[in-house]
Write a structure and sequence with these properties.
With 377 residues, the chain is an alpha+beta fold. The chain has two domains: 3-64, no CATH class; 95-364, Rossmann fold, CATH 3.40.50.12660. It contains eight helices and 18 strands. The chain has helices at residues 43-64, 114-129, 154-165, 205-208, 213-221, 302-313, 319-331, 343-352, and strands spanning 3-7, 14-18, 23-25, 32-34, 95-101, 136-140, 173-179, 182-186, 196-200, 211-212, 229-235, 247-251, 257-261, 275-280, 289-291, 300-301, 337-339, 361-364. It has an eight-stranded mixed sheet, sandwiched between helices. Helix 6 crosses helix 7. It is globular. This is Peptidase C14 caspase domain-containing protein. One of its GO terms (molecular function) is cysteine-type endopeptidase activity. One of its GO terms (biological process) is proteolysis.
Length: 377
């Protein structure tokens, strides 16, 4: 089928669309674009209309960028946004990472440990796996952050994802880490076994929307070329299949496992030949923890802490040992818990000494022997 290049009028990304299509939906920002006719009696009116709407969008972008360079929404209620979803950051080396930590300052649902998670993950990647500092793109809502492109808005996270996959080649090692809130949404396209999409919550999700698993898959899973590897660490509630990968590892407490096929209906959840592997905080229907019990002082996400601690404690471990070690670390924690969704549950954990029920999950674009494959970034 013949196709041609067309630009999304909302975010500016260039997409390949079938030649006979006159209207298309952008796979990144989900905006609808009506393709301008090259000839015809109404082409002049079309051009005039879109010239006006383009100027109007430019005005809004000007408002959005007048935040004075400080954290948070400006006086107009907008977070600063890039003018398009084209990455404006340089790409460095064969090891690259996007690290997001969101506290949601000033909100009733604010978190304590997510920025600590992001800082610990960056230090871990640099000092344990040799990632260059310049190859790690950090997005946090730290009050000290002054770069509007480094605030984890929906736009900025999608831009960072595109940066992560830009010019990826065989042999590249990519990491996506997210620590923040996660949730579930009603699935609209029939590609989920349970009828629900998983989603992560950018700092501005109440205004701009969440990022659902289909979008994450489209941005950082499907473009992954042969010979490249992506690892995701998603420290959020309802994150079991947050990357919408093809297979989920079902492991019991004795360490026995099997792969569960997640390719429901006609869903294409694979890569472009590379391998994508995700460690997530809990099952899709469960919640994750923000706690000081693991570190003994500073609040952290249970997944991020147990992930780093297990890798440091067992050099050269396999994926299976990593998953079971993370679960054992969390399972043995009994005090100091703050459960994200439920103050009653957190009180029970704190005063009755109940163990954490959070069970980290492993999913992958391909089935493999988790005990024969050595974990390495």
């Amino acid at each position: 089928m013949a196709s041609r290049e067309e630009k999304c009028i909302h975010c500016g990304i260039v997409l390949m669309v079938p030649a006979e299509v006159n209207v298309f939906e952008c796979g990144v920002c989900h905006g609808i674009t009506q393709i301008r006719p090259s000839t015809g009696p109404w082409s002049q009116a079309y051009n005039s209309f879109h010239s006006f709407t383009g100027r109007f969008r430019g005005f809004l972008n000007t408002i959005r960028s007048t935040s004075g360079g400080s954290y948070g929404p400006n006086s107009y209620g907008f977070y600063p946004q890039p003018h398009s979803l084209r990455p404006s950051f340089h790409v460095y080396g064969s090891k690259r990472a996007v690290v997001c930590g969101i506290r949601y300052h000033g909100k009733s649902y604010r978190l304590k440990g997510s920025i600590n998670d992001a800082k610990c993950m960056k230090y871990f990647l640099i000092n344990h796996f040799g990632f260059p500092s310049d190859s790690i793109l950090m997005l946090t809502d730290d009050k000290e952050e002054r770069n509007p492109q480094r605030i984890p808005t929906r736009y900025n996270i999608l831009v960072a994802m595109r940066w992560l996959l830009q010019n990826t080649q065989s042999g590249d090692s990519l990491v996506f880490h997210f620590s923040g809130h996660g949730t579930q949404e009603i699935n609209m396209d029939g590609n989920e076994i349970d009828g629900l999409d998983e989603a992560i919550c950018p700092v501005d999700y109440e205004q701009e929307g969440k990022i659902i698993d289909d979008e994450i898959n489209t941005a950082i899973v499907r473009p992954l070329p042969r010979g490249a590897k992506l690892h995701a660490i998603v420290d959020a509630c309802h994150s079991g299949t947050a990357l919408d990968l093809s297979f989920l590892c079902k492991m019991n407490r004795e360490g026995c496992y099997s792969w569960e096929d997640q390719r429901f209906g006609r869903a294409n959840k694979g890569t472009n030949g590379g391998q994508a592997i995700s460690f997530s905080a809990c099952e899709d229907g469960d919640t994750s923890m923000d706690t000081s019990a693991l570190s003994g002082s500073e609040a952290t996400g249970a997944l991020t802490y147990s992930f780093i601690q297990t890798v440091l404690n067992e050099p050269g471990l396999s994926y299976g040992r990593l998953l079971s070690g993370m679960r054992s670390t969390i399972r043995g924690t009994k005090t100091g818990i703050v459960q994200l969704n439920g103050p009653i549950a957190s009180l029970l954990n704190r005063f009755l000494g109940m163990e954490l029920r959070q069970e980290p999950q492993l999913s992958s674009s391909d089935m493999f022997d988790v005990y024969a494959s050595r974990f390495v970034l």
